[in-house]
Amino acid sequence: MIAVRRNKISGQASEPTLRRLPGYLFYLKKMREEGMLNISAPTIGKELKCDPTQVVKDLSVTGIKGKPKVGYNVYELCQVIENYLGFNKPNEAFLIGAGNLGSALMAYQESQTLGLKIIAAFDVDKDKVGTQIGGIHVLEYGKIFSLADRLKVKIAILTTPNNVAQWVAEELVDCGIKAIWNFTLTNLDLPGEIIIENTSMSAFAAVLLRRLNDSIIK
Amino acid sequence: MIAVRRNKISGQASEPTLRRLPGYLFYLKKMREEGMLNISAPTIGKELKCDPTQVVKDLSVTGIKGKPKVGYNVYELCQVIENYLGFNKPNEAFLIGAGNLGSALMAYQESQTLGLKIIAAFDVDKDKVGTQIGGIHVLEYGKIFSLADRLKVKIAILTTPNNVAQWVAEELVDCGIKAIWNFTLTNLDLPGEIIIENTSMSAFAAVLLRRLNDSIIK
DNA sequence: TAGATTGTTAATCGATTAACAATC
DNA sequence: TAGATTGTTAATCGATTAACAATC
Q: Rounded to whole angstroms, how far apart are CA atoms A166 and A149?
């Protein structure tokens, strides 16, 4: 029997690897600014506190080639990671629900690299509509239908109250949205092809608190 | 040779389990409000899209006992999870850096269960000092030393600019802070006993973008 | 050349999933 | 009783870590 061998496609990174890459990128950009030309995996690993072998493996998903004894070219490395993650492309996104967390994310992307660019926010609150937060206009929710179609936006950040999240998400899918970054606690039930990235702040708090309580007991 | 068998301590939950527990809790509280008395692992699994066996295993860390064919008591389940995570205790925290993300988290905890309670915020910006965000006072950064000591606060949320994060973190450790929820991109280098929970927004964006791009190619 | 580092393959480790006996 | 569900133990799966040959 002949085994069929799949070609190794560059898009094979595991989720943990994907989560680590922005961390590498931030550090490498800092090193690039400081004028460093080459960097080795052990050096990166020491700084970010992870195994050098893992660094090598993580970086290999971008297809970069390093030189034994020398390491990787810092400038090239920054470029391939940015390119691999798609951080150098516009990645335009809508934000729905300009409440507390919503307006924060809008303001946040000014100072930090979020990876994507919020081009408009939507809300039903008449007081918020017409205002600007972090340079982003808050529009009337109803306008999302025509705008999504016109601008071909594929990504939505969902920061509405929990009780309307499912309903809004369904409308987003109707608008042609393909990926939803969900900050609500609601478990969205949507067609399988829609990409959902759930980010719940309390999940982090849970890990932190548990580790803290464990360390106090010991 | 006699094998030494460790007693199964309740604090043995893995990190993935810990991250899932707040999700269960939110759903169960909703069910409790709707008057549901008992719930089975398969029912929870169907809703949260995870394996029923995993639900059983996750819930078992709290020490709760279910009844075959009936499931778990919803009220009791909410209580034991809240208790296990420590979400029912005060968990008082300081927030340092009342900038964009910082003020967001302050406002956020009013509407969502964060798991911990921000009792004061600190900033060096004279314009922010004296104001109130989400009901939390912003105090002068210098005051943190005496207050941390007096109030015995053990948790700090770090939302300063990246370039001062390491420096501030070291001062927090001097203040007696034991756990730092780090929202900056800086890799904090602190004594080993300090608990650090790194939360970088761009890590989520990376996973979302990659999955989106992969799905478009296919 | 000698030695550090890359890059790959193998071993380990831990989490998820499957199997199944116990039980209500 | 019959059957669904718990709860535990075993099998699987995937990620991390270790080993090592290639190479600059």
A: 21
CA distance A162 to A172: 15
Nearest-by-Cβ selection for B213 from A86, A108, A114: A86
CATH architecture of the domain with range B15-85? Orthogonal Bundle (1.10)
How many Å apart are CA B177 and CA A31, to the nearest integer? 30
Q: Cα–Cα distance between A94 and A120 in angstroms, integer?
A: 5
Residue range(s) occupied by CATH 3.40.50.720 in chain B: 91-204
The candidate with the shortest Cα–Cα distance to B41, out of B68, B19, B16, is B68
Separation of alpha carbons A61 and A39, rounded Å: 17
Q: Residue A163, Cα to own-chain centre: how many angstroms?
A: 24
Measured between beta carbons, which residues in chain A are less than 8 angstroms from residue B15? 207
> Architecture of A91-204 per CATH?
3-Layer(aba) Sandwich (3.40)
- Residue A216's identity, in one-letter code, is I
pLDDT of residue B127: 94
Q: Where in chain A is the domain with CATH 1.10.10.10?
A: 15-85
**Tens of pLDDT along A40-68?**
999 999 999 999 999 999 999 999 999 99
Which pair of structure tokens corresponds to residue B89?
Answer: 């205790």
Question: Which bases of chain D come closer than 7 Å to a protein CB?
Answer: 3-9, 14-19, 22-24
Average pLDDT, chain A: 90
Q: Please give the model's pTM, rounded to 2 decimal places.
A: 0.91
The answer on pLDDT for A181 being more than 80 is yes
Report the residue of chain A nearest B177, measured CA to CA: A212
Torsion of CA A124, A125, A131, A137, to 10 degrees: -20
CA atoms of A109 and A135, how far apart (whole Å): 10
Nearest nucleotide over every DNA/RNA strand to the A17 CA, judged by C1': D15
A95 neighbors A116 (Cβ within 8 angstroms) = no
Q: Would the Cβ of A17 be found within 7 angstroms of any atom in strand D?
A: yes
Per-residue pLDDT tens over the stretch A107-128: 777 667 778 999 999 999 999 9
Q: Give me the B residues in range 35-94 that sit within 7 A (CB) of strand D.
A: 40-43, 52-53, 56-57, 59-60, 64-72
